[in-house]
Request: fold
Amino acid sequence: MVRYFLLLLVVVLVSVGVCLQSSCGGEQEAASTEGAAGCGCNRLRRAASSAADSKEERPSSEPAAKYTAAANEKISQMMFIPGGEFLMGTDDPGIPQDGEAPQRPMYVDSFYMDVLEVTNQQFQSFIKATGYVTEAEKFGDSFVFEGILSESVKSQITQAVAAAPWWLPVKGANWNHPEGQDSNITDRLDHPVVHVSWADAVAFCSWANKRLPTEAEWEYACRGGLRDRLYPWGNKLNPKGRHYANLWQGDFPVHNSGEDGYVKTSPVMSFPANLFGLHDMVGNVWEWTSDWWTVHHTTDHQQNPTGPPSGKDKVKKGGSYMCHKSYCYRYRCAARSQNTPDSSASNLGFRCVSQEKQ
Ligand SMILES: [Ca+2]
Ligand SMILES: [Ca+2]
Reply:
């Protein structure tokens, strides 16, 4: 019973994450509106879209091909992030209830950050070296977006999540079997690992002699030295018609057109780096940070803030391939969301940082 209670809790929290991203209604009209009041998620229950079930395809104009060839060389690289002052958060929050505001002055010391989200290949190396067992493996299931599940797996699931029917608890889903037992990572070793809990992410980073970034470090890195910009690259979502992140195009959750080339995760480095040389800071998969969640922030100048001393949820940043402005306007540097530390899902990963060069 405890397990199922936790499962339900996670369902709710995960769905809150998505629904908030989803704004559960509010952002459908305008991204800057109140957001989460009046969740319209229930009426979104539909069968998975044919587009989401289809094979990933790269558009002819997107940069995946030329970046993928170099990915292996950069796979473990870290970028030096020069410390400095920056403005964290925003006074013009897209989703006010997330605690994006107020904009507040911060200073962070220099650090090194993974250029890329941690990949399946890297996580596989960690598992092989340590024998580590992830929380999803211990629990025996994890949450998978319905749109990427096989019909076979879906037919075996009887449990639905009323508030967010696109999230299904899938038996046997874990980092090595992202859509359940009939799936594997063989053909996506250069994709970000998913179905990792916060503790799993911490364990990996520790093994690599690294750690998770604080939320302030993550946001500082996301901004790449730009001031008052929505995205790591500026204020326009698609400058010159180009996609800079793996997000959702179409009507969430029923139709993903895959205009950016991907309806699921994409190989890391498929999209351009920001000015700090970091890829996929927004989009592709959400990224865990070390901070506990709060929506209350001081406007006093802070130096290397680490968040509240305790809490219930951990902060995640950057949004994912499931984010669309109408339901998940969280692919901005100031945006944020939360999950319980034991949560895992098919759109949640991480990257590590360290004070020293690794
Ligand atoms: Ca996409
Ligand atoms: Ca990301």
Q: What stands out?
A: Residues 246-248, 258, 260, 262-263, 321 surround calcium ion (ligand 1) (CB under 6 Å).
